[in-house]
Amino acid sequence: MELEAAESYYDSTWLNGSVVEAGKDHLQAQFDAILGDSMSLPEPCIQTLSMNELPSLLGSEEIESMGVYIPVLGDVQGGMMFISTADAIVGLLDALQLRSDRSAVPMDAFDRLTIGQITARMGDAFLGQMNRMSGMVSHLGAPVVMMDMAGSILDTAVINTCQHSDHILVVEFSLVHGLTKQVFSLWLIPDFYQDAFV
Amino acid sequence: MNYQSISVGLGELAISSDQSEVLVAYGLGSCVGVCMYDPDLHLAGLLHAVLPSGKNTEKRRAKFVDSGINLLLERILEKGARKDRLVVHLVGGANMLPSNRDALAALRIGDRNVTAARETLTELGLTPGSEVVGGTRGRTVRLYVHNGDLTLRELGNKEIDIRGRFESAF
Fold first, then answer.
1. What percent of chain B has pLDDT over 70?
2. In this structure, what DSSP letter does residue B119 have?
3. Chain B neighbors of A4, CB-CB under 8 A
């Protein structure tokens, strides 16, 4: 059996730790406001992963997952992808006490709308900080929620970056509320055709 | 029989004549999977291509549909396959973000991948014996080396044998 893999590298200067750190603090404040209780968001992990390492974040390519893609428009263009397993998404909604019907398996349309809005808040927390630090003005488009195999959602996240690189920038963070811990990933998908990334 | 699964990841291809193996591309979304099989040699090849075409593809030919199909054909012929015996299947090319919004247009890559695959196969004188392409759902494809069986599975569904069927979601 022969295997041929593509190789390249990724220049991660697009994002630095201070953007993520400040964005995380903003996000935590928003979650606290939703819940009326304090949640903990430990230090996010910023990683540059190759395309073929991405499925390991979720367990396997076939695991049921949710991806929320949010276009980024303005001075910086591209997108953000929030991705996690279906179980972890249910855990997040439960932790935030936002599920309309906790018996719904796995989620109903209202839950999907809710997770889309939560994700938009997450994205806005990071994008807002990036705008402040860079002086650029960008905003988020409407989120698109996908429920499918992890591998299929991965496709969507990598197709824009992989024209130029085989790697993608991933911010992995966890949310702790009481004894519950859920792990999520926010993937940053720059549009390399924009001057801001050249 | 217990098969050994050989995962063919994004931008990879695999060739096998080991009849205990099954070549698997998990969760094909907008990517396309191109399968080639020589039934006389029990020789199977699977390409998992990500984008229709690209520049400077020499070092990463398997990532792009056009160069990847050419590479897959080269590799399977090097192993002794005959072009006139090859059975070809085309799978994938879903549009995971169904939308007409301009902001998402660039991500509607599934259609372009399928078109590129068809054009490249035609240029090479190959015709797919089956196609399961388009739609908005991801698919896992398995190519069994011992007999060339091709199966698909979507989230929440069982594995189904599609060899010999022609089906398009377009």
1. 88
2. H
3. 12-13, 61-62, 71, 75
- What's the CA gap between A71 and A143, in Å, rounded? 7
Q: So what's the ipTM on this one?
A: 0.78
Taking Cα atoms as reference points, which of A78, A56, A55, A80 lies closest to residue A68? A80
Which CATH number is associated with domain A12-197?
A: 3.40.1550.10
> d(Cα B115, Cα B66) in Å, to the nearest integer?
10
Q: Which of A65, A77, A148 to mutate: most B Cβ within 10 Å? A: A148
| Structure token digits, residue A86 | 């279906």
Look at the domain B4-168 and name its fold: 60s Ribosomal Protein L30; Chain: A; (3.30.1330)
Query: Are the Cβ atoms of B54 and A163 closer than 8 angstroms?
Result: yes
3-class secondary-structure state, position B82: coil
> What is the mean pLDDT of the segment spanning B9-34?
95
Cis upstream peptide for A55 (omega within 30°) = no
Which residues are CB-neighbours of B157 under 8 A, at least 6 positions away?
A: none
Structure tokens at A163: 């024209």
Question: What is the sign of the dihedral through the CA atoms of A194, A195, A196 and A198?
Answer: positive
Burial class (CB within 10 angstroms; exposed 0-12, middle 13-18, buried 19+) of B149: middle
Q: What is the pTM of this model?
A: 0.81
Q: What are the extents of the domains in chain A?
A: 12-197
Does A3 contact B18 at a Cβ distance shorter than 8 Å?
A: no
pLDDT in the model for residue A105: 59
Tokens in use for A171?
């911010």
Q: A114-152 pLDDT, tens per residue?
A: 888 888 887 887 788 778 877 888 888 888 888 889 888
Q: B88-145, pLDDT tens digit by residue?
A: 999 999 988 765 555 455 557 889 999 999 999 999 999 998 899 998 889 999 999 9
